[in-house]
Amino acid sequence: MSKNYLEIKNVNFKAGGKNKVKNVSFNIENKGDIICLLGPSGVGKTTILRTIAGLEKIQSGTIKLKDNILSSAKSHVEPEDRNISLSFQENSLFPHYTIEKNIYLGTERKNLKNKKKINPKKIIKLLNIGKILDKFPHQISAGEAQRASLARSLVTQPDLLLLDEPLSNVDQSFKEEIQVQLKKILKDLKITTIVVTHDSYEAFYLGNKCGLILDEKLKQFDDPYNVYHFPNSIEVVNFLNRGILIPAKVTGENSLENIDLGIIKGNFIKHYPKGSNVQLLLQPEDLEHDDKSNLKLEVIDRKFRGTNFIYTLKTKNELHVPVFVHSHHVHQHEVDEKFGIKRPIYIDHIVCF
Amino acid sequence: MKVNFWYSGSLIVSIIVAIPILTVFSSFFENTSNYFEILKNTFLIEYIINSLFLLLGVLFFTFILGIGCAYLVSFYNFPGSNFFKWALILSFAVPPYIYAYSLTAFFENYGTAFTILKSVFGDGDYNKSIPKFDGMLGAILSVSFSLFGYVYILTRASFYYQSQNLIELGKNLGFSKFKSLTSIILPSARPAIVAGLSLVAMETLSDFGTVSFFGINTLTTAIYNSWIAFDDLAFANQLSFYLLIFILALFILENFSRKKAKYHSPAKGGFKHKEKINLIGTKSFLAFLACSLVLFFSFIFPLSQMLYWTIIFPKNFFDLNTQQLFMNTILLVSLSSLVLIIFSFISNYGNRVSRSKFLNILTIFSVSGYAIPGVILAVAFITFVAWFDNEVVNFFEFKSIKKFFIGSILGLVLVYFVRFYSLACNGLRSGYEKINRSIDESAYLIGYSKLKTFLNIHVPYLRNSVLLVAILVSLEVIRELPITLILRPFNFETFATTAYIFASQDLLEAAAVPSLFLILIASFFILLTSKYILRDDNE
Questions:
Q1: Are residues A180 and A230 in the same domain?
Q2: In A40-117, which ranges are E strands?
Q3: Residue B509 and residue B256: Cα distance in Å, rounded?
């Protein structure tokens, strides 16, 4: 018997007869784990969810839940017999029922009888949709419809919950609060969940693990920290868009050199022979502001992000380097001014390609 | 592809509907009698010219009437504008052949017009001064007043959705009202206008009652005659084939134009409703007069004529077994609606669940039955039953099945089914298009089977569409003439066939009673549907 709760092995995910994501394998080890799938629009994230839910069939590989085969080339358990719930990105509430009826329909599921029941009222309160219960789907906003749909999925107490961009229409001010509450309830009820999102922060917060779907492949499946700090490919770096790759030459066990920034020290996560030419991942938090430093770069852009600023600096060789600075730090440099970078540059974990 | 109940059901429905259409096409390769040679050398060209002349005349009048009325009620406020908005669709209650009876009855020698003049001005030779609307002109007017509603409804809907921004743009460019109409309003509504005119064209080419009443020989009457007078089914089918090609071309045009219309429909955001212009003084009176005249000539005139005759010849009313005719009509209406709704549901849901491209193409083909004139369908149906009986039933030495299908309620309902399948199927489909597929999938994911999803989600949600389809089918069945005339059981009459039989025997006064009942019942159904037909929102 396999120890994995959900096991996906060598599956080609197809939609409309076309391959969307090829040869995907990943596991969810424990009941109650949350997995986030990240990737650009149209890459096939939703197709993966639909296939796991049984709405699409597979021609190769296997999908197993609690050691039962749900999908393979030979067998296919119908969606209604899977006890998997999918909350769609678009409004999928039954238009002729009120929101309350829509949510309570989820409690009618056959195999709920032997389970500890979730109190729908608790979910309704959590998702702050008490005021819209007697309304019909066409009378509520997209964000409210998404939360109502999420509530319906939660009350079905599925063996596996699939959430497709669950908070994409929710107001930013309310989003973080719901993320916190959602994570809490999923953990409390031990509902195993796969969340599809294009928001990396949402994925890093909610997920025990994150999978990155790029170029028809599952490029990386790892802890959120590792995905961010130890991306395993240039494609992942480009997708996360949280740093740049600059040319550098390995000068020793713990150092390399860039023609504009000079010597950079730190810990390589992978060994490179001395003298190798590499692409170094430089993330905004890797450089520190220091106007006393003799390494001065020209400011070409400054973005205010509330808690911090992101400066974009230009080197002599036209590299555009991002630098993160706290909001309250004294650094009021305007565009075209010079911005000092602290030396020596030290990067805790050096990622090169 | 998994073959299941829904897929098989949908497939069977589409095949049944496609059989008469295929029969017409297959007839092209059969031998015909000498009638073809005779006709080719004598009247065929005349038939074709008559059909085209009728078509062009009707298109001209329906264009003027339909667009004119739609423009007035959509862009202007004048006394009764809201009343005219829905009252003008009452013209649908008067089939062209009944309009023809009224027209003749009023203007004929010693007809109603004569009686009125005599009662007002005393005795006189008024017959010479009363214009005669018979022959081609009578047919064009009868069909036009009866069918302009198609152009009116579709154009009005299109005008309604024209954004205020578009109108304001015209003003901003310094356009006069007429220039705005010709440069902005009409071009924007072009797909709807073409769609309306295509429907009118199909109905005109299918018309049998009016042209046969006025004694005009068209392709449709030629088909009927080749079957009735010369007993040449193969040639009737071949003529049908030519007419069908012509109608299919129009059908494709209409379909193409509808797609464009959809493309031009406004997005929810950014749509700004028009503010109607308040007409005052002479302009207001003229607008009121124009709409009143159209309403009068299209509905009140034929209704009054039939009512007048019913009152002055009460014997006709008492001689007619109206109760039986009513029961017969209701029986046909109920059976047809029930059968059409059930099978259209199966077909639509089968298509939805299976997502089969083959099934989808077959359905598109089978809904073209609406474009086929009733006469052709009836003849094709008889051809197919005869072939099946001779070739298949005889081969297995079973008892003949002809009596079950020809001259029976079953056969009649079956051909109604083919004729009006498009109406029912498309009616439900447009309802289905509003149900996102993720709704079905959500139902499966909360444990609903396909049947439970169908019964608990689709059927309740589509109840308004079902009601609308049922009423529209009823309206068509009540007005339908050629299929009923050809396939009805012995001694089984409806209001439509009774009116036709009296009229064809020159007993127009007697035709008034069934015609009046037909108009009243049809008006009742139209009033029931008016809120759907004229709805002004996106629901």
A1: yes
A2: 62-65, 68-72, 84-87
A3: 44
Give the pair of three-digit tokens for residue A25: 């394998």
Report CB contact under 8 Å: B436, A92: yes
Q: Is B445 on the interface with A (CB under 8 A)?
A: yes
Q: What is the DSSP letter of B42?
A: T
CA within 13 Å, CB half, B115: 10
The token duo for A90 is 């678009």
Evaluate whether residue A335 is within a structural domain: yes
CA distance A77 to B3: 16
Q: Give the chain A residue whose CA is nearest to the CA of B444.
A: A80
Task: Name the CATH topology of B1-31+313-493.
Answer: MetI-like fold (1.10.3720)
Q: What is the separation of C-alpha B8 from the centre of its chain, rounded to a whole number of angstroms?
A: 30
* Within-domain flag for A153: yes
Nearest CA in chain B to A56: B441
Instruction: List A301's β-bridge partners, or say none.
Output: A312
A11 and A102 share a domain? Answer: yes
Q: Where a domain ends, among A211, A237, A263?
A: A237
User: Which fold would CATH assign to domain B52-312?
Assistant: MetI-like fold (1.10.3720)
| CA–CA separation, B223 and B236 (whole Å) | 5
How many domains does chain A fold into?
2
Residues of chain A positioned with their CB less than 8 A from the CB of B1: none
Q: Could you give the CA distance from residue A98 to residue A249 in angstroms, rounded to a whole number?
A: 64
Does the beta carbon of A110 lie under 8 angstroms from any beta carbon of chain B? yes
Chain A contact probe: residue of B446, B449, B458 with most A CBs at under 10 A:
B446
Which residue on chain A is closest to B461 by alpha carbon?
A96
Looking at the fold, whether A293 and A344 belong to one and the same domain comes out as: yes
**HSE of B5 in the Cβ direction (CA atoms, 13 Å)?**
7
* CATH number of the domain encompassing residue A157: 3.40.50.300
Please indicate if any CB of chain B lies within 8 Å of the CB of A193. no
Sketch the domain layout of chain B as residue ranges.
1-31+313-493, 52-312
A319 shares its domain with A215: no
Q: Which domain holds residue A222?
A: 6-237
**Residues 6 or more apart from A161 whose CB is under 8 A from it?**
A84, A85, A87, A153, A154, A186, A191, A192, A193, A194
Q: What is the CATH number of the domain that holds A337?
A: 2.40.50.140
E strands present in B169-293: 277-278
pLDDT by 10s per residue, chain B, length 539? 445 777 888 888 888 888 877 777 776 666 666 666 777 777 778 888 898 899 999 999 999 999 999 999 988 899 999 899 889 988 888 889 889 988 988 888 888 888 888 888 888 888 888 888 888 999 999 999 999 988 898 888 888 776 666 667 776 776 777 777 777 788 778 777 887 887 788 888 888 889 988 989 888 888 777 777 777 767 777 777 777 677 677 667 666 665 544 444 444 444 455 678 888 889 999 999 999 999 999 999 999 999 998 998 888 888 888 899 999 999 999 999 999 999 888 888 888 888 778 887 877 777 766 667 787 788 888 888 888 888 887 777 777 777 788 888 999 999 998 888 888 888 888 788 778 888 888 888 888 888 888 888 888 888 878 887 888 888 889 888 888 988 888 888 999 999 988 888 878 888 889 999 999 999 988 888 777 666 654 33
Q: Which of A50, A51, A55, A98 to mutate to test the interface with B (most CBs of B within 10 A)?
A: A55
Structure tokens at A132: 């819209």
Q: Are A148 and A270 found together in one domain?
A: no
Kindly write down the DSSP assignment for every residue of A210-244, as one continuous string.
EEEEETTEEEEEE-HHHHHHS-SSHHHHHHHTS-E
Q: Are residues A207 and A121 in the same domain?
A: yes
Secondary structure class of A20 (helix, strand, coil): strand
Q: What share of chain B is helix, strand, coil (3-state, %, to 5)?
A: 80, 0, 20
Half-sphere exposure of A93 (CA within 13 A, CB side): 30
For residue B438, list chain A residues with Cβ-Cβ distance below 8 A.
Answer: 88, 90, 92
